[in-house]
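Retro notes, item 3 of 5
We never archived the inputs for the (R)-mevalonate complex last cycle. Fixing that now. Sequence and ligand:
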Amino acid sequence: MFLFGEHAVVYGKPGIALAIRPRVYVTVRKTSHAHHAKSPYIDQCFKELNVKGSVYINSQLPSSSGLGSSAAVTVATMAAINDEFGLGKTRDQIAEQAYKIEKRVQKGRASPTDTTVSTYGGMFLIKEGTRKRLAPQNYHLVVGNSQVTHSTARMVEKVADLKGKYPTICEPVMDAIEAITLDAMKHLDEPQYLGRLMDMNHALLDVLGVGHPQLSKLVLAARATGAYGAKITGAGGGGCMVALAPKNLKARIAGALEVTDGRALITCLDTEGLRKEKDA
Ligand code: MEV
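Structure as it came back at the time:
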């Protein structure tokens, strides 16, 4: 999940993202018949590795919400196939191939951010194919799902159109988002300071046209209930927002999001990333 820098990463700017709970579980078993998955990401995993199997997914992360759940499912499916068929792929290869699949399904528009954090766990600074692991922090996060459907590909295209039409305005906005991310890097253990930066980043995402009235309401509700800061996370236009919360207020903030017609999820950093569970 993005903490800072979504959309700007598409234009070579840095972004900060982290893996969150709950984990996604995927089981794959060899079968002689081609499986029929509901997700194009899963279909592409089997195609990419040229095997046939059945797949069982247990995920409590809402899909298509901007939390990077498609990346988590893709990474976990690649790893489960790797394991079941003894393909001997490394974590790095799995991360790389999962990104390739995301990119293919999203028609060329994807950054390796969500596949990176899903594979390795923890928090990263991502910039143009490079990643820097950041010291894990004990953030209290409250995610609000607006339940408004959106498409990452469409939102990325919308920003590209706006940038094409108003380059002298949008380019400084991208620079300002970059400045926020770089400033955040110096204050990762100061939630109050980060909260202000999240509020600023949110305003700039609004400028880029990826806001939504329901997301604004959730962001305002979180702030009014005492969040350090709140912003859209992911592509916007619907999907999710995230609030950084004082520990003692997270339940109250979650309640405020629920009464604002959002689905709330209290979460935190997952430091572990990809992991093989015991065989069932
Ligand atoms: C979507 O979750 C985040 C974007 O920056 C696109 C991407 O990084 O692939 C909008």
